[in-house]
Predict the structure.
Amino acid sequence: MKYKIGVVGLGVMGHNLALNMERNGFPVAGYDLDMSKTKAFLDGPAKGKKIAGVASPEALMDALEKPRRILMMVPAGPAVDSAIEHLKKHLQAGDILIDGGNSFFMDTERRSKELEAQGFNFMGTGVSGGEEGALWGPSLMPGGQKEAWEATKDIFRAIAAKAEDGEPCVAYMGPRGAGHYVKMVHNGIEYGDMQLIAETYDLLHRGLGLSARELHEVFAEWNTGELRSYLIEITATIFAKVDSDTGKPIVDVILDEAQQKGTGKWASQNALDIGAPIPTINAAVESRIISAIKAERVQASRVLHGPQPRYSGDRTRLINAARDALYASKIISYAQGLGLLKMASVEYGYNLNLGEIARIWRAGCIIRASLLNDITAAYRRNGSLVNLLLDDAFRSAVESRQESLRFVVQTAVGMGIPVLAHSASLAYFDAYRSERLPANLTQAQRDYFGAHTYRRVDKDGVFHTQWV
């Protein structure tokens, strides 16, 4: 028999996606440079299924129907280029290579152009949902040639997560690197979400003195309302977990040093390149960087002093305000991420559909949340929406909660508890709603020291002042 698709790289993500495809009616041929992985897969979870293992690129090509569809699940970076070179000499015109890793979108741009010039199709496909998502339904963000999407869409739609309305969480994103760009921004929003949740935890734990068990109850309750999401759900679960070695809550014995693989940082770097303001996401990236200098922070804590993080006001008021502030900041963060996508769509000619992107993030991916149903609805109401905050429903949601957000930021600042992401969200909101900002002084300074000129509010043209 001929197999519908090949999977190259049979690590956890690769073999889970292969199992997902087979379960949904698409026989798979698997290949890995490490034959022990192939054997373990075939003798284990793939045993008795319509999954074959092959030992060489030649055998892989022979096993697949044409046009050959080959999903590469290898680490981002040089490994992808190596895999392409390893396979390319055995491809035929029209065959489709798919990179399902977390590749940088500009690498995908380069690979797409090079392979297309040689007669091959290439798709950069963002895959979100982790190991469980790969097995039971991820959110998929494919980009590349439209004909490549047409040849793979039945498989992708079958294996993708299904939202509450039954819609598969996959759609064609656009040409070349569009899929990996959207995945990069997804991860940037994910960074923002996680940092906002972490700051809320810090405020309630250090400032209000809530125990892990109390935090579990708070977050579990929040997950039944407007904040319902995968990240809130797992946060509630984390607070309930007890360390078997010490008997303490596991969260209290984990070192406060957050690592990162780079996708959030890429979003921040690219936003600076194209001039898109995403301060909440930037704050989340910076917060991870600050967390990484643990030894330096320990030393600084012994010589730099501030207020005691102790809240003496009404507990219920702060908890409720924290919930509302988290929701408002989350909306503002999404507005920034979607704004970045909007600007990138023009910059790179991706023609991104923001409503479709919000739709496919509703299930399967890490940022899946009930909020995304509302975002999808907003873009269905107005497909040319300039900024999420200008949608009537979201404007009202943030305006009605801004008092809570201001109270949370002021309270945290007063106690010396850092809230970089909440502060950035509030500052973005205030800057975006300001008809006039102090950039007039900044431009005057630039003209003073560098003759950079300026425009005036009362007449057209470009002007320069002789300041001295």
In short: The chain has a mean pLDDT of 96. The radius of gyration is 25 Å. Residues 192 and 281 are 5 Å apart (CA to CA). The longest strand covers residues 121-128.
